[in-house]
Amino acid sequence: MMLSELKVGAKIPEITKSITQVNINRYAEASGDFNPIHINEEYARNTPLGGTIAHGMMVLAYVSQLMTAAFGQDWLSGGKLDVRFKTPACPGDTLTVSGEIVSLEEQNSDRLVGCNILVSNQDGEAIITGKTTVRIEMPEGTETSH
């Protein structure tokens, strides 16, 4: 986001992700997490969840993608997450990842940007809720009043 767009109430451009079993399997390979609840459809069908679910960290990576798109290197070098996993994401789900700036604080020559984030499915169910904090280094001579 541009410095001029950093205002309480500003929305972070949302992203949409489709959850597929193929992507879940690829994440299992990349992460080394082969828990059968993620990759064994027959096993997962016989659990209270009724089928496979996406890895929580896979879904959380979408939050990081959202924040990276909005804040770039500032997010990558010093972003912080505080989230709750509310319900699993399943194959066939379409997730919307969104955020909103809820606080701006000056700290030395930097600005701390606090955001509420939400990952929800196609039914509006919350998958992940939480807060993020991004430290933005302000260029020398930048006006920091908001």
Provide a compact summary of the structure:
With 146 residues, the chain is of the alpha+beta class.
Q: What's the CATH superfamily, by name? A: Hotdog Thioesterase
With helices defined by DSSP (H or I, 4 residues minimum), what is the helix count? 5
Which sequence of strands runs across the widest sheet?
A: 1-3-4-5-2
Radius of gyration: 18 Å
Number of strands: 5
Question: What is the strand content?
Answer: 25-35%
Helix content: 25-40%
Based on CA inertia axes, which overall geometry fits? Answer: elongated
N-to-C series of helices and strands: EHHHHHEEEE
Structural class: alpha+beta
By CATH reckoning, the class would read Alpha Beta
Q: List the quaternary state of the chains.
A: single chain
Detail the poorly predicted runs: none
Overall mean confidence score, pLDDT: 92
What's the domain count? 1
Q: Could you walk me through the main structural features you see in this protein, from its secondary elements to its overall organization?
A:
The chain is of the alpha+beta class. It has one domain: Hotdog Thioesterase (Thiol Ester Dehydrase, Chain A). The chain contains five helices and five strands. It has helices at 21-31, 36-39, 41-45, 56-71, 73-78; strands at 11-18, 80-85, 94-107, 110-120, 126-137. It has a five-stranded antiparallel sheet with strand order 1-3-4-5-2. The longest helix is centred in the middle third of the chain and has 16 residues, at 56-71.
